[in-house]
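Suppose you are handed a protein chain with no further information: no name, no annotation, nothing but its sequence. What can you learn? This example shows the usual starting point.
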Amino acid sequence: MRLYINSGKHASRKIDQRISEIEKNVSSPDVVFTEDSVRKPTLREYGSTFALAPLLVGTMILWGKVVLPAVQLAFEKDKKIEQHLEMEYGADIVPTDAPALELIQDESKLWSMSNWISLGLIGLIVLETGVLNEYLFVFTLLFGFGSSLFLAFLAGNQYARNSHIAERIQSHSEKYDEAVLVTGGEHQQGITELLHSSDAVFVENSSQSSQQ
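A reasonable first move is to predict its three-dimensional structure. Written in structure tokens, the prediction is:
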């Protein structure tokens, strides 16, 4: 299977340019691999993982459901690429990313300890400063510590996510001939390196950098 990796920001003003680049390099894609999770978490999984690491999970939900959608309002999303290729070429859409809650559960001790240490530090700061009634200050502390945990989570799981995406692509290699992966720019090099030794997948643009 030939794979063209189209990477860049998930929301930008260059989405049409990315579509043009794909169409210049791929004649008729059979499948579009996306960075979406391979499955949606259940309410039970949300509950058990939230009990394990409430600050991290709460911040992930806040970023994913509120902050990022608000920031992305002024831009086009890379979902447009997937939709275009599906409509124009009849390409299948196949999600590839590892479920985030599973990644937390896989390293439950690490993320639980980090979470409760952070909450303990927040509690000490609030008690020492005596600003328990300053709700904005407390929220800022929670959001700041939570965002730091979230960034650490993303950085710490970069390889695991890249591996999951690469394995998912390889598992579909016998079914398709022409494939496109639409992903964030931070994933292209890692996924390319993981697929380099694969006999089933040939990355056509392995030397190209990601697009913004």
